[in-house]
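Anyone have tokens for cathepsin L? Sequence:
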Amino acid sequence: MQKILSLLTTALLLSGLAFYSQNEESHSFKTWQKKYNKFYSSSEEAYRQIIFNQNVELINKHNSNPNKSYSMAINQFVDLTREEFQAIYLGKSTIVKTENIELSARKNFEAVDWSSKLFPIKDQFNCGSYWIFSAVGAVEAFLRVKKVLKWSLSEQQLVDCADSWGCYGGDADFALDYIVNTGIVYELDYPYKGREGFCKVRREGEVKISGRERIGSNEDDIKQKVQEYPVSASVDCQGWAYYSKGIFDEGCTDHRSNHDVVIVGFDKDGNWKIRNSWGVGWGEQGYMWLKSGNTCGIMNRVDRAI
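Reply: yep, here.
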């Protein structure tokens, strides 16, 4: 009899812990939904909570490892599977040649960080316009540092008007060439919608640049150019979704490209500071640090406005 009671007590205790755990996860999911304004149909909500729980477990496991050089955080992407995240926010993964990469032999660098000179971080929303944000970000940076630019420029113009892929991915060098040839208007006159629409530009944009300069895949050369002003670069951003802070150094390859960003600086150890287009709720207020060298293929395609 005593043994039976003991078994029943253990079973109740375990079921109570499971119930508590389920309630705790549900509360966490509901709190997250409220914070990020996420709403689903009744049939989808249970599915999204399962994905949420799995991703939170992954984040907690990563952060509990003291050997990791960066941390993860629960953000706006934790209700998505890896495949969904890639389909919405990234471009088609392409193979990039890496045989011409020249890494720096230097151990100490004169650090530079242009982020305080730039406009606030932007958000591409559920639109694969990262390539446009990289190009426009590089143009804004050039004009902010070397010229005079008081107002932010229009990404939506390129989403609607550039003869390319809009919200379905593209190439930042193509976007830079469009700005060279056509010019670009101010965001105030053509605000971002995060979806494709009809082109509203009937004349050349008010803001133009002289050209686009391709920078070779030499780390010292790239860093020298970044010391002048920020540049556009292509990357493989596999594993970036939950990045929070620290030096990212794993989970991506150096021979693929599926995303474009802006390099805004580097620290004394040569680690790259990256400006992304996923809003201030991601990373370090919209920025991240990549390990020096060709981490995530950051050196494979680098262009700047001139």
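Residues 2-72 form one domain.
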